Amino acid sequence: MDTQTQLELYKEMVLMRRLEERAAKLYQEGKIGGFLHLYIGQEAVASGILAARQPQDRAITAYRDHGVAIACGVEPVRVMAELLGKRDGTSRGFGGSMHMADVERNFWGGHAIVGSHLPIAAGMALADQYRGQDAVTICFFGDGATNIGYFHEALNLAAVWDLPVLWICENNQYGMGTSVGRASAIEEIHHKAEAYNTPHARVDGMDIRMVYEAAQEALAHAREKGPFFLEAVTYRFEGHSVGDPERYRTKEEIGRWEENDPIGIYRRHLLNDGAADEALLDQLEEQVDLELQEAVSQAEAGPEPAWEDFVGTIYADGYRDESWQL
Fold first, then answer.
1. Beta partners for 178?
2. Cβ-based burial of 312 (10 A; exposed 0-12, middle 13-18, buried ≥19)
3. Can you tell me whether residue 14 is helix, strand or coil?
4. What is the pLDDT of residues 59-78, one digit of tens each?
5. What is the rounded CA–CA span in Å between residue 5 and residue 52?
6. Which architecture, in CATH terms, is 3-303?
7. What is the distance in angstroms between the CA of the first residue and the CA of the last residue of the chain?
8. Pairing outcome for strands 174-175 and 178-179
9. How far apart are the C-alpha atoms of 9 and 70, rounded to whole Å?
10. Domain boundaries, the chain
């Protein structure tokens, strides 16, 4: 990875962090409705995985989707506008926090029902395989989803048909308030892939360089040979959603993980490798703060959804065109 790309990834991770911090404040001010699931602590996973993808590769994720949207190249102003329910948002203000999508950037959405998007990912991979397209579907999900029926059905079908799909388990240690050890008979979740004859690996999800290297290998396998399962061991520094009392874990546990902040780890790598100095990294962070401030101001000033937006989004474009029928 060249120096410029490394610096862009650092800036991207900082943007994710700052955006989530600002979103939490807006939520507490009553400007964002519904639930708000923050990606703070997990930035290295989305950034590292998606930095390794090719433009034609698709990404799909669960409800903790803001970071994946940013890593797919969605502009922060559109992410913020969606959170605020504005017309300029990724889903015209209808999706909110859990249902962002930008198909033009091959971000195929956040999905609120745990595990429900895994069969969708298998279907997208099947479509690419059927059409002979050189594309991989990258499917992010949490550790809790691996205990859901959707997970097993999707992994089985992908293996039977050798679908070009990369399964990314973001093991952040908790499914809502239940630890992995209390919910799963296997704590190293990647071993679950063995039941479906799917190659698998485990990576430190707090170190973006390790994630990137693992993703390159995993994507190459998925593109050439079929499904691959990658477990990224990570941690969410905030609650399951904003307002979570977090009685299921201690401050000491959170503190131990925060000592391995993925942004701090990457910053040290860049400094030690001579890719940047403190002044340059501080400058990049200042740029992020200014860009985010402008994005929030623009999003807040944006228009509300109009009536024609509501009635015009019931059907997909071209739905009534029957020329495709035999």
1. 175
2. exposed
3. helix
4. 999 999 999 999 999 999 99
5. 11
6. 3-Layer(aba) Sandwich (3.40)
7. 49
8. antiparallel
9. 11
10. 3-303
